[in-house]
Design a protein that fits this description.
473 residues; alpha+beta; 2 domains; 5-stranded antiparallel beta sheet; 16 strands; 41% helix; binds magnesium ion; binds nickel (II) ion
């Protein structure tokens, strides 16, 4: 008799999702689906607005990654205006992006994922939070908060507020950097470097004991996609699209992000509101690719900053070719935190960052603009078509987390097959399934809605809908 297990509200992620597991007669998992259960409709209700308003509106997609939308939307606006953004404005935008990636990564690692590593996958679910970390290791909780605060303050010091700043605009940014704020950020660099390195070394030291998770939590072959710098270094704002396969071979290189539609198409499934982007040449669903920290480190040939370089080389030695276990998203995320700190220091160390020419002005010069950046969770696209007055007529946004949709579903299936025994369900089994989703750090708020309380309810259902078993917390 076929049974279904439902994880109603996946916990410790950004947004709302549920997981259903369909069991076969032996109580083994046959199928798995991650359903994203809300829809937002930004692409529709923004139609008719002037393109200059879109950075401010699209930033409201999300309270975690407003900066990413602000940047992608402003870059699409740069394209519509057909201007060259002043170099200092480009560097200021990059600075804000590094602050954004850093704070978001610290949130995922210390607040959402570390409880599983520090306290254990089978520990009391009530303790699996930042509060549980604080009880077990107060210094780790404090330093995790400190790292995130540093990133948030970079955003605030540049844009005058932490969430929904309107500082980035088509053509550049709306104000130069105050010299005193440059000093303030630079003065904190040594402390946050020390914290980032400390937890990188701690997590690296834990990896041997997590080797079972690395095997079972989303270990599969896929393509990897992201932006890459001119010399093959990590790049989050400029650069070109690169795609590598599971063996690390380059399939696409130096593709202008404006031409993303040549390699990415989107599929729709009836059981979820999140679309499934795929690599067009391989078709759906074979064209599964991953984006985000794991993908960025897999497509790069070097980190490009001295301290992160050492960890980058270690990361790449974990597996031959590309690193295919989704569990290593966590390690990649920590390496990126250190890299972001180094890049913030590098950008601020050049005095030209205080230049006051930070904005180009123009009207509509092209009727189509594409903005692409690396958001914390991966490659983000904003694609706008406008009329001659600048009113937006067509919008397509491909959200970073959406790019990982096929891979997240695959990861859930692999973990469920490895850990879930439908004949004797335990909370720890299901937490392992959720942990795969957390490794990807999806921001479902970006395509769905805001955070709320997220109780978890797991139901074991018979085909006729009768409830056979339930676990809730
Ligand atoms: Mg879309
Ligand atoms: Ni988001």
């Amino acid at each position: 008799m076929e049974k279904t297990i439902t994880i109603e509200n996946v916990t410790r992620i950004e947004g709302h999702a549920k997981i259903t597991l369909t069991l076969n007669d032996d109580g083994k998992v046959d199928q798995a689906h991650m359903h994203v259960t809300q829809v937002r409709g930004f692409e529709k209700f923004m139609q008719g607005r002037p393109y200059t308003e879109l950075p401010g509106i699209t930033a409201r997609t999300c309270g975690i990654c407003p900066v990413s939308h602000l940047l992608a939307s402003s870059k699409a606006g740069d394209g519509i205006m057909a201007v060259r953004v002043p170099k200092t404005a480009v560097n200021l935008r990059k600075l804000m992006n590094y602050g954004q990636i850093l704070q978001s990564h610290a949130l995922n690692f210390f607040y959402l994922s570390a409880p599983d590593f520090l306290l254990g996958m089978d520990s009391d679910p009530a303790q699996r939070s930042l509060f549980g970390i604080h009880a077990a290791n107060p210094e780790m909780a404090r330093e995790g908060v400190r790292l995130r605060k540093f990133g948030q303050q970079v955003i605030e010091r540049l844009g005058t507020k932490r969430i929904h700043s309107n500082w980035v605009i088509p053509g550049g940014v709306n104000a130069p950097l105050e010299p005193s704020l440059r000093e303030a950020i630079l003065s904190e660099i040594p402390e946050v470097k020390r914290i980032a390195t400390k937890y990188l070394d701690w997590f690296r030291g834990q990896l041997p004991q997590f080797s079972e998770y690395a095997q079972n939590m989303g270990q599969f072959n896929s393509l990897f996609l992201g932006l890459i710098g001119r010399e093959g270094e990590l790049e989050y704002y400029d650069g070109h699209l690169r795609v590598v396969d599971a063996a690390g071979n380059i399939l696409v290189d130096r593709l202008d992000p404006d031409r993303y539609a040549e390699i990415i198409a989107e599929a729709v499934e009836p059981w979820t509101f999140l679309k499934f982007p795929y690599y067009r040449p391989l078709g759906y669903p074979e064209g599964m690719y991953r984006v985000g920290p794991l993908a960025r480190l897999n497509i790069a040939r070097k980190a490009g900053t001295p301290m992160a370089e050492r960890y980058f080389e270690d990361f790449r030695s974990l597996e031959p070719g590309a690193v295919n276990s989704s569990f290593y998203y966590h390690y990649a995320r920590l390496i990126e935190i250190l890299h972001c700190i180094e890049k913030i220091e590098e950008l601020l160390s050049d005095i030209s960052i205080l230049d006051t020419h930070v904005r180009a002005s123009a009207g509509v010069n092209q009727l189509h603009g594409v903005g692409c950046t690396e958001a914390p969770r991966g490659t983000l696209f904003h694609d706008y078509k406008v009329n001659r007055d600048g009113a937006v007529e067509h919008i397509n946004m491909i959200i970073a987390s959406g790019n990982n949709n096929l891979a997240m579903n695959r990861g859930v299936l692999e973990a469920a097959k490895a850990y879930v025994d439908g004949t004797r369900l335990t909370e720890g089994m299901l937490n392992r399934v959720e942990a795969v989703v957390r490794a990807f750090d999806p921001c479902l708020a970006c395509s769905t809605h805001a955070l709320g309380t997220m109780p978890i309810q797991v139901e074991l259902l018979a085909p006729d809908g009768e409830r056979l078993d339930m676990i809730s917390r």
